[in-house]
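2.7 Reproducibility. Because tokenized structures are sensitive to small changes in the input, we list the exact sequence used for Family with sequence similarity 83 member A, including any N-terminal residues retained from the expression construct. No trimming or masking was applied before prediction.
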Amino acid sequence: MSRPRHMGKIRKRLEDVKSQWVRPARADFSDNESARMATDALLDGGLEAYWQALSQEGEVDFLSSVEAQYIQAQAKEPPCALDPPGGAEAGPKGLDSCSLQSGTYFPVASEGSEPALLHTWASAEKPYLKEKSSATVYFQTDKHNNIRDLIRRCIARASQVLVILMDVFTDVEIFCDLLEAANKRGVFVCVLLDQGGVELFQEMCDKAQISDSHLKNISIRSVEGEVYCAKSGRKFAGQIREKFIISDWRFVLSGSYSFTWLCGHVHRNILSKFTGMAVEPFDEEFRHLYTSSKPVMGLKSPRLAAPLLPGAGRGLPSGCLSSSGSASDRTSSDPFSSPSTGSNPHNQIKNQMKKQTTLWFLMMF
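Resulting structure tokens (single pass, no recycling of outputs):
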């Protein structure tokens, strides 16, 4: 009697659901070891190794052609693979000792532990907690509430801070809205952009002839998705598919909309507006992502070095704001840069309040 052929988890599920004689089983959400081994094989040896692993594991081809191409295109060697300990003779042995020092393997975990929030706010310091909780949904087909116009109106009405997480940003008009908010109204803007969209964003800046000198009050940073690491040490990072805007820490706009001309005119999208307690998860998610982000353009890494002194007027104490760059970089990256308001007392008070708000924002990071 022949030994029954090993059947992968997905293949067995397919056979069960196609058969009218098999009773429904309880949902199984555990990890698929066969799929993990096949994915590792794809990372290490390409498509041929992937198909061979599927055959050995008795598993179905669970990756689309686009997904397989993405994994291969994004695959990266482990840092130690370029210079294995002990020289060339160490070879694979050196690689194993580097990538598996702990003897523990986490196939879908990132390189480090999840970053903790940089600062914990007291409840009184979160403006959205003072707002009534609500949720409103908008569809692209609603001609009275055009999604692109809603986003641009949100940017136009911001008075203190705009926090944006986006996958693709190539809409020049929305970029102009952000530049106007930052440079004309003194709104601090922080954009976390998916690493895969950085090149397109920089292409837009080149076409519009925008450089760091135009981003005095804007921080553009890149961030990646989760990291899959194979047992060999090879890995690839996912993308950022989350998209949201936090305005003045009071409400959130979130949905499928990307900052592109196509999304604004032909692609169908959905947008939701959240206020009150519903803002908190977005607030926390942004802080988590910010800790792993890298500077692209504009402000590099502003941090508070000294508190704003009461009655300091329009000027700031020397060294109040510092960054990782040189002295000239710190001057050009001053988030308090704004047009002169003259001697009008009302304007001076308003300007002072804006400075305090921006300092309060920087303290979060």
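Residues 81-124, 301-343 have pLDDT under 50 and may be disordered.
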